[in-house]
Amino acid sequence: MIRPVILSGGAGTRLWPLSTSGKPKQFHRLMGEESLLQATAERCRGTGFLRPLVATGEEQRFLVLDQLRRIGIAPEAILLEPASRNTAPAIAAAAYWALARDEDEPMLVMPSDHLVGDLRAFRQAVEVAVDAANSGKLLTFGVKPTAPKTGYGYIEAGKRSGGVRQVRRFVEKPSAEVAAQLAADESYYWNSGIFLFRPSAYWRELEKHAPAVAEHTAAAMQTSTAEGLFVRPEIGAFSKSPNISIDYAVMEHSDEILVVPTLFDWSDIGTWDAVHEMFLADERGNVINGDVVAMDVTNSLIRNEADVTVGAIGLDRIVCVVTRDAAFIAPLNRAQEVKQLVDELQSRSDKHRHKDARLSGPWGSCQIIDQGAGYQTRHIILNPGAKLSPQKLQHRSKHWIVVNGSAEVTLGNEAIVVGESQSTFIPAGTAYGLANRWEVPLHLIEVQCGLHLGDDDIIPTEGN
Length: 464
Prior knowledge:
alpha+beta
């Protein structure tokens, strides 16, 4: 059996404004009907795989739970990294978690935000790697280059033994000239960032080549706390770990590394120009999503996620991404510079920062639709069996309109059922509660009216 370990940290700022710190790219549906996280989890569903272990941040914990629940996958646990320390400590925490449970099954470590095109070829590559992983080797998966990419690391492969090859060396992101040479050489592969090894094997090599990571991660896990599925390493110890990737910490130094040549299409889709390449373009070379009118536009990516119409005339090789509260426009060959733009936005005052308007929790989610002086409109989704804590508002009233499902609304001591297309009014100062007692999600529109709309206007009350 193989334990999938899904790495779901990071902000994915190179895909701003779609990807934000509140909802990074792995939670978006860039291609198809599933998010990248969901597609990653689906890759390891079924025979031969244990339930996944997910490593993420505190802010994304309910997004992870909700998205996996929607596809019927229950994680074994969710490791909540208390500080951003790159992949080596995150994987170390996963390995320690497994070893503490006397589990030494191979871990299949996968970033949550990569695209893999052929599920059968992916699983065949994993099967090829299992025997070597069980013998104590550390396996990485190499992708045959289709172009001289400068944004990827490369692996030079040596002698072949069965379906795996020895690793001669790792090459960091090369110049354009070097990338062209490597892509044309049959000995080189892209470094996919996907790994397979037993927890004990990784820990052995970690103690040998990056002992500080092993020491501080172990200390953090020894004093970790658990709350249901959530496991929280102790922040003080975890923060002392070096901020280092698994490649720099272990893979580039160990003598126990093998590479599995793969046949599946792969991309880390880390930039908007990479997204443009992954889609099937139209006859003019364009990849267009959403409400877009394009005239005399060629070789471009235009993605509209907002409830507006985007019009473009006479453009070539541009990227234009529009969301509810931000827009990004640039030449396609400069799309990677969006990170510098995000850094500039984050250096400004709060009103210039791009924040996701959706709040998620174990109960469901809440999306701000519109707001202004004296009012705010929100779309609330309440999961089956979920409820909101009883409370009352001092300076504002609420209207709830049920769009889908049924709501059990408590007003004072009276409980009523509000059905689809029905509404109810909650005056200021009235204690109220909301519950979904049914087996389908409850969707409702909430309109708040009042002079004060801040959270400090909410007063918790007792009740069921």
